[in-house]
């Protein structure tokens, strides 16, 4: 698409400002999830499992909607316009919403407490369920997009 | 509670901005995007071990708002969503060894570094008192 090359590249300060705004809302959503879980008596780590799995699924969907793809449906990058959207919702909102440091400490404290079941649940959720959620979110959305684009081309 | 929420959100936004700057710097120095996210996440896990492992003494000495600010920055700094999408993208592109390396390094490395951060902080504060 030629018109993309006509646009100047998005300046870094703009990408950072956009991600800051997304990160503010995403962090608030995560803190809200933690408060919500604790208000129904669930420990904090359950909230962080939920945000990571939800966030992984959401970024799969987001990428499949925004990225440029090659013929096999594999992401190759973003157009300038979608780059800003990805910074807002992906790097910003979902980056603030999800947390690896929280996961790391949850596992570490489970190990320190000798709570092996809790550690196993955390590792399974983040190592298997979360990755599967991202893969599913991406592949389902990409399959629907390719069907739609084929219809549009026909 | 509202104050807590506001501090976590503001500090999360700062963490996000710092992550983008760090990612940009790392990539300008030749790091692959997934490699930059790995370094960011592992560093955040190490620091989180130090902060969360000494949460009680931080809260007593500096107050619960400082604790919320520190954990907020670190939670915004690290990202599980970018990590999971990087694993999926590398896998789809056929870079399976890189995908598995990123996967294993994050999931084993982050908790281990958090433990190390906690132990280092405990040793430091133990030595200081």
Tertiary shape of chain A: globular
Residue ranges of chain B: pLDDT <50 for 5 or more in a row?
none
Terminal Cα span of chain B: 32 Å
- Report how far apart the termini of chain A are: 19 Å
In angstroms, what is the radius of gyration of chain B? 16 Å
Find the count of extended strands of chain A (DSSP E, 2+ residues): 2
Order of helices and strands of chain B: HHHHHH
By helix and strand content of chain B, what is the structural category?
A: mainly alpha
| Tally of individual helices of chain A | 6
| Backbone structural class of chain A | mainly alpha
Biggest β-sheet description of chain B:
none
Concise overview:
The complex is a heterodimer of chains A (154) and B (129). Chain A is built from six helices and two strands; from the N terminus they run αααββααα.
Could you name the key traits of this structure?
heterodimer; A: 154 residues; mainly alpha; two-stranded antiparallel sheet; 6 helices; B: 129 residues; 90% helix; 0% strand
Question: How does this model look, in words?
Answer:
The complex is a heterodimer of chains A (154) and B (129). Chain A is built from six helices and two strands; from the N terminus they run αααββααα. Chain A has 154 residues and is mostly helical. Chain A has helices at 3-6, 12-39, 44-66, 80-97, 100-113, 116-153, and strands at residues 68-69, 75-77. In chain B, 90% of the residues lie in helices and 0% in strands. In chain B, helix 2 (33-53) packs antiparallel against helix 4 (64-77) and helix 2 packs parallel to helix 6.
């Amino acid at each position: 698409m030629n018109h993309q090359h006509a646009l100047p590249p998005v300046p870094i300060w703009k990408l950072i400002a956009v991600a800051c705004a997304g990160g503010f809302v995403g962090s608030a959503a995560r803190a809200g999830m933690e408060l919500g879980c604790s208000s129904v008596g669930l420990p904090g780590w359950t909230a962080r499992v939920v945000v990571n799995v939800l966030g992984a699924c959401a970024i799969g969907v987001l990428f499949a909607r925004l990225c440029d793809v090659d013929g096999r449906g594999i992401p190759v990058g973003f157009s300038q316009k979608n780059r800003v959207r990805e910074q807002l919702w992906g790097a910003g909102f979902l980056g603030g919403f999800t947390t690896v440091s929280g996961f790391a400490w949850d596992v570490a404290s489970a190990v320190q407490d000798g709570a092996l079941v809790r550690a196993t649940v955390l590792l399974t959720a983040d190592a298997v369920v979360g990755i599967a959620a991202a893969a599913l979110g991406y592949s389902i959305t990409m399959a629907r997009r390719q069907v739609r684009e084929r219809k549009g081309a026909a | 509670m509202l104050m807590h929420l506001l501090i976590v959100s503001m500090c999360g936004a700062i963490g996000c901005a710092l992550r983008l700057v760090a990612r940009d710097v790392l990539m300008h120095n030749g790091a692959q995007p997934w490699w930059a996210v790995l370094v960011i996440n592992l560093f955040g896990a190490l620091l989180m071990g130090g902060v969360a492992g000494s949460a009680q003494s931080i809260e007593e000495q500096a107050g619960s708002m400082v604790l919320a600010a520190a954990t907020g920055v670190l939670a915004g700094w690290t990202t599980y969503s970018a990590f999971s999408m990087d694993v999926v993208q590398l896998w789809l592109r056929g870079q399976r060894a890189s995908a598995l390396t990123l996967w294993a390094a994050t999931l084993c490395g982050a908790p281990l570094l958090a433990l190390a951060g906690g132990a280092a902080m405990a040793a430091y504060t133990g030595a200081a008192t």
